[in-house]
Write a structure and sequence with these properties.
The chain is an alpha/beta fold. Helices cover 41% and strands 17% of the residues. It folds into two domains: 2-175 and 356-374, 3-Layer(aba) Sandwich (Rossmann fold), CATH 3.40.50.2000; 182-355, Rossmann fold (3-Layer(aba) Sandwich), CATH 3.40.50. It is built from 14 helices and 13 strands. It is elongated and about 70 Å long. The chain binds ligand GMT.
Length: 375
């Protein structure tokens, strides 16, 4: 199939999932066209059947806001015609599903009928899309999609609760390449980050308020009181400065490293012993899955789709939002005993295997076939 993938090209989970999906589909023989405003961060190489088309938005001083949706829908129309693309797969409802629908309608004027699959990722529903300023447009574009998918059962329920949805929502969980494992990284340089007798705890996110970054620091503070350890903070975002201040206030400057954004998460996770994800809301928690596939147990909240990903008492633990005491105690219980730690590491890897890319990508292919047959 010839498929256009529309996504955010940044470090966010939705962009990562869209990119990994496109690459996996290309390996299965499909022709993939990424259409967005910048080359997606995980799209390192463009091969024969993977293309990238940049959406340019010309600056015009009259406009207070430059109309990205217009430029995107026009680009979609042009690329569909030029490459004879058969299907649009848009990731993140805002504004991609809206722009995709406009493109579909413009193409119909020329007698070209093309289905649109919309994947809901989380904040497009629970935080942004639910805002009264966007809600009618988001509801409309979800209902006008030919196929709708969500990355967890929890997100499906949130969508049905928050919007008047008339379409079926298919749950297709996020996935991971399970061949990624610590063994792959022969240059796994643990010694650069910590001494032999120290444990390494990691957090990866976009440092937005929803991630509860201060909880990460407080949990770590309690753990390091009992277990010699280091905290590696990966990512950038609005809460970073506050987090750095808290680290200073608690006198943890020598124990906490802020690495910034990284394209090499696996190289960091391969030497990590524990992953912290105390989010307020998480439709799935791709970061937790990336940790688990590297054999890193996860302490997370039980919000949103996290209970569908992290298994309590097996791959890690789930706690109430904000219960830093309990999260720290569970962390200590995993780290204080080497045998227990090894057991949790192995379980984390086993849990990740449930989301094997080879099991999940065919689910999308089936939905594409269905969408094409119904157009
Ligand atoms: O919150 C993020 O990390 C970014 C956000 C995004 O829109 O890219 O992630 C959302 O989509 C990911 C991929 O499906 C999910 O794994 C994240 O849980 C989800 N974030 C939230 O729901 C807050």
């Amino acid at each position: 199939m010839k498929i256009a993938i529309v996504c955010y090209p940044t470090f966010g989970g939705s962009g990562v999932v869209a990119t990994e999906l496109g690459l996996a589909l290309s390996k299965r023989g499909h022709e993939i066209h990424f259409i967005t405003y910048k080359q997606p961060v995980r799209l390192e190489q463009l091969t024969g059947n993977v293309h990238f088309h940049e959406v340019h938005v010309p600056e015009y001083p009259l406009f207070h806001f430059q109309p990205y949706e217009l430029a995107l829908s026009s680009k979609l129309v042009d690329m569909v015609k030029l490459y004879k693309i058969e299907l649009l797969h848009v990731h993140y409802a805002i504004p991609h599903a809206y722009a995709g629908y406009m493109a579909k309608k413009m193409l119909e004027e020329d007698g070209i009928f093309i289905p649109m699959v919309t994947t809901l990722h989380g904040t497009d529903i629970t935080l942004v899309g639910n805002h009264p300023f966007y809600k009618p447009a988001v509801t409309f574009s979800i209902n006008k999609s030919d196929v709708v998918t969500s990355v967890s059962e929890s997100l499906k329920q949130d969508t049905l609760n928050l919007f008047q949805i008339t379409k079926d929502i298919n749950v297709v969980p996020n996935f991971i390449d399970v061949t990624k494992s610590t063994k792959k990284y022969i240059d796994c340089q643990r010694s650069l980050m910590a001494n032999e007798d120290e444990k390494i705890i990691t957090h990866v996110s976009n440092f937005r308020p929803v991630k509860r970054i201060m909880d990460v620091i407080h949990i770590f503070n309690k753990i390091q009181n009992q277990i010699k350890s280091k905290l590696i903070m990966v990512g950038e975002g609005p809460e970073k400065e506050k987090a750095e201040d808290l680290v200073k206030e608690l006198g943890l400057q020598n124990r906490v490293v802020f690495l910034g954004e990284s394209n090499e998460i696996d190289k960091i996770l391969c030497f990590s012993d524990l992953f912290l994800l105390p989010s307020e809301k998480e439709s799935f928690g791709l970061a937790a899955l990336e940790a688990m596939v590297n054999g890193v147990p996860v302490i997370s909240t039980n919000s949103g789709g996290l209970p569908e990903v992290n298994s309590h008492g097996f791959s890690g633990y789930l706690c109430e939002i904000g219960n830093v005491e309990e999260m720290a105690n569970f962390g200590i219980s995993i780290l204080e005993d080497e045998d227990n730690l090894e057991k949790f590491k192995l379980n984390a890897w086993k849990q990740a295997k449930k989301f094997d890319i080879n099991k999940i990508v065919p689910l999308y292919e089936d939905l594409y076939t269905k969408a094409l047959s119904e157009i």
